[in-house]
Automatic annotation (TrEMBL):
Protein name: Glutamate racemase
Lineage start: Bacteria, Pseudomonadati, Pseudomonadota, Alphaproteobacteria, Sphingomonadales
Catalytic residues identified in the record: C79 (proton donor/acceptor), C193 (proton donor/acceptor)
Enzyme Commission number: 5.1.1.3
Superkingdom of source: Bacteria
Binding site for substrate: D15, S16, Y47, G48, N80, T81, T194, H195
């Protein structure tokens, strides 16, 4: 017998920064009544330049403490870097259902006409065996060109603090893809970091016409909805954003967070 789910139990969305908001936007559309806690590990940002061991230890440790304290009904690791490195391990150690975020290579392979797919992710994500396995399983006969675009993480963070996006970060990402052998034929780009859809308009302009972008946010939201189907939802307190470091700039995110229904900022 399962215990009945507390209607006020939140869904916990976790990322290193604001990238997971791209998943939250899709989740709101599907489950508007769901109580949400959005956790940003700004003390650990960026994950992309860390080692596998650092990311795994950080994510497992934080999620362990967060699930104990916040009692979520489900955890979504809304971060490709953390998911491709630590999803299996976190699932092994936590009792709560975990939804991960992995690069949308399967839909990209179905969409491409030229057979050449670009993939933008963090340095850590693009070297993961998880990505090799997705490529082998779903992109056979296609070319998958992977490019690390850490500057886009910084640019997306700046954008949500209300600061301008440095066009050099956008150009570095798209020029990097185009400069790879076969890069001129890319017609589909996988945004394999949850921060990057926040910059899709700028990336689309820089890639030029005829390039389609694909990411997993909508699919992840559907998966969360499936796993919580039939559960009662009632928001007892306003949804909050939790940051792991009490840095002064966290308050600059408040207007953007409010647009995602996160009306207060707290430090974990
Ligand atoms: N949002 C994270 C992802 O999806 C990465 C950002 C970072 O480097 O911390 O990969």
């Amino acid at each position: 017998m399962h215990n009945p789910v507390d209607p006020a139990a939140p869904i916990l969305l976790f990322d290193s920064g604001v990238g997971g908001l791209t998943v939250l936007a899709e989740l709101r559309a599907l489950l508007p009544q769901a109580p949400v806690i959005y956790a940003a590990d700004n003390a650990g940002l960026p994950y992309g330049s860390k080692t596998e061991a650092q990311v795994a230890a950080r994510v497992a440790g934080l999620l362990g403490r967060m699930t104990e304290r916040l009692r979520p009904r489900l955890v979504c690791i809304a971060c490709n870097t953390a998911s491709t490195i630590a999803l299996g391990m976190v699932r092994d150690v936590l009792e709560v259902p975990i939804v991960g975020t992995v690069p949308a290579i399967k839909p990209a392979a179905a969409m491409t006409r030229t057979g050449v797919i670009g993939l933008l992710g963090t340095e850590a994500t693009i070297r993961q065996g998880y990505v090799d396995r997705l490529e082998a399983e779903f992109a056979q006969g296609k070319r998958l060109l992977r490019h690390a675009a850490p500057g886009l993480v910084e640019a997306a963070e700046a954008l949500l603090r209300g600061a301008p996006v440095d066009p050099a970060h956008i150009a570095a990402a798209t020029d990097g893809l185009r400069a790879m052998p076969g890069g001129g034929e890319i017609d589909t780009v996988v945004l394999a970091c949850t921060h990057f859809p926040l910059l899709q308009a700028q990336l689309a302009e820089a890639m030029g016409p005829g390039v389609r972008f694909v990411h997993g946010a909508a699919g992840i939201a559907r998966q969360i909805a499936r796993l919580t189907q039939g559960q009662p939802f009632a928001r007892a307190v306003p949804d909050i954003a939790l940051f792991t470091a009490a840095a002064p700039e966290i308050h600059a995110y408040a207007p953007a967070l409010a647009q995602y229904g996160l009306s207060a900022i707290e430090v974990f």
